[in-house]
Amino acid sequence: MLYKTQGIVLHNTKYTDKRIISKIYTKQFGLITAIINVGNSPKSKIKSGVLQPLTQIEFELSLKENKDIQNLSEIKCLYVYTDLQYNFNKLCIAQFLNEILYKCLKEQFPNEDLYNLICDTYQWLDSANDSYQDTHVYFLFELSKHLGFYPANNIDLLHPYFDTLEGRYDSQPKSFPLGFDKEQSLLFSQLFSFSLTKNRKGNRTERLILLDCLLHYYKMQMPNLTEIKSYQVIQEMINLM
Fold first, then answer.
1. Are residue 119 and residue 55 in the same domain, yes or no?
2. In this structure, are 169 and 192 located in the same domain?
3. CB atoms within 10 A of CB 61
4. For residue 34, what are the CA distances in angstroms to 16, 18, 29, 127?
5. Which of 52, 79, 106 is the last residue of a domain?
6. pTM above 0.85?
7. What is d(CA 130, CA 147) in angstroms, rounded to the nearest whole number?
8. Mean pLDDT throughout 213-222?
9. Which pLDDT does position 139 carry in this prediction?
10. How confident is the model at residue 18, as a pLDDT?
11. Three-state secondary-structure class, residue 150
12. Domain range for residue 25?
């Protein structure tokens, strides 16, 4: 059956000179894998540029439920980034988030709230003039809701230590990365009130600590999560900001 839907490109693999296999997170069907004919000549129906990772697209999908790889056609770009592709810091953040999504998203079921979170965050990052330095921290924290391990906000005087296996605050400390120390746990608790429009007042040291804590929390909750190659790049970027 033929559907028109929207999606965001996560990853491409070259299949032949004129065909790619693309991982796309869609609004209507969740994660799909598609094989697509692309080219750069004037006669090409689908230009390779419209399928670059991060691109938000609209397309026609010939969905076959018993097939692992689908066919796409009539692809067009839904949102044109005006700054993200040219701003090194923003691009580092976006590529880091894209790698996280590619490695964490396995579901083939629709989740419109998650789709909107992804698209809205990228668009906000693209248009932000400043105060975007914590975008990746906000996104990882919010993404955990949709991955099924959003942490419990139960910090108090009797439970000051965050347990990364249980996803909640405990009375007894555990050695990192099984748990956070008191300072890390308190800093982590600030994320419950954080949003893109309500900026957290932090410095680069705190930003690095939070990023490290979040990634270790992800690894405790998703043991099969492989190495994040862009992690070192975003660490260096944060140090320069």
1. no
2. yes
3. 22
4. 14, 14, 12, 30
5. 79
6. yes
7. 29
8. 96
9. 96
10. 82
11. coil
12. 2-79
Strands (E), the chain: 2-16, 19-26, 30-37, 56-62, 69-79, 161-163, 168-170
Task: Kindly state the tokens that stand for 146.
Answer: 């949709």
Kindly report, residue by residue over 161-201, the tens digit of the pLDDT.
999 999 999 999 999 999 999 999 999 999 999 888 776 66
Encoding tokens for residue 10? Answer: 């996560």
Residues 28, 3: contact at Cβ < 8 Å? yes
Same domain membership, residue 114 and residue 232: yes
- Whether pLDDT at 110 is above 90: no
**Number of folded domains in the chain?**
2
Rounded to an integer, what distance in angstroms lies between the CA atom of residue 157 and that of residue 11?
45
DSSP result, 168-216: EEESS---TTTB--HHHHHHHHGGGG--SSS-----HHHHHHHHHHHHH
β-pair type (56-62, 168-170): unpaired
Residue 152 per-residue DSSP state: P
Residue owning tokens 């955990």:
144
Q: In the numeric block, which tokens belong to residue 113?
A: 């709230």
Q: Are 180 and 164 in contact (CB under 8 A)?
A: yes
